C-alpha cells in the first residue's frame, strides 16, 4: 500500500505544475534542443546534453521530491537526495568528458532513441488521451518518471562505456515507480519497467558479440599452425 491516496498524488501534481508554470513548455523545448544536440554530437554538445540532464535531476530532486512530494510521502526526502546525487554524477561526467555520443549502433541506438522519443512525445500524449488535466500530468524534464526514461535513453546513445554508477538511481526509480503505475493510474509509467529490460537486453547482446569477437581472434589459422609445427631450418 502507498502512504498517500490517488487524489493526494494528483493534488501534488496540480499544485506543483501551477507553481512552476510556464517552466513546463520551456523545458520541453530544451528537450527538443537536446535531441538536435545528440543528432549532431561534438565534445561541447555532448557536455551540454549531460548538463541539461543534470539540471533536470537536481531540479526534480530539490523542488518536486523535497519541496512538494515530501508533503504526502516523507520518504521523498531520501528520493530527493538520490536525485541530486544523480545530477551531480552527470555534471561530473560532463566536466570530465567521459561520455560521447554519435557512434552507438544496433540495438543500443534503437532502444536509446525509442525511450527518448517516448518520454518527449508519446508520454505526454498518452496522458492527454486519458482526458487528464494538463496540470495533473508529469511534465517532461521536471518530474521523476519522464526524467528517468529520458536519462536511460540518452545513456544508451553513448558511444563510450557508461559508468555503472550513472544507472543506479534511474533503474532504482524505474523499478519503484513502474511497479506503482497501476495503483496511481498512470499507465504511461509502465514503460519504466521496460528500461531495466532494455538495458539487460543491450548488455546481453553486447556480451554475446564481444565473446564471439574474442573467439574469432582466438582461432589460429591453419597456416600459422603448420608454421608452428614445421622444424626450424636454422636450428
| Largest beta-sheet characterization | none
| Total tally of structural domains | 1
The ordered string of helix (H) and strand (E) elements is HHHHHHHHH
Give the termini distance in whole angstroms.
81 Å
| Proportion of strand residues | under 5%
Q: Name the poorly predicted regions.
A: 220-226
Question: Shape from CA axes?
Answer: globular
What's the helix count?
Answer: 9
How would you describe this structure to a colleague?
The protein is mostly helical and 235 residues long. It has one domain (6-221). The protein has nine helices and no strands. Residues 220-226 have low confidence and may be disordered.
Kindly list the characteristics that best describe this protein.
single chain; 235 residues; mainly alpha; globular
What is the fold's blueprint, element by element?
Elements: H1 6-20, H2 23-39, H3 43-68, H4 76-96, H5 106-129, H6 144-156, H7 165-179, H8 194-218, H9 222-229
How is this structure best summarized?
The protein is an all-alpha fold. It is 70% helix and 0% strand.
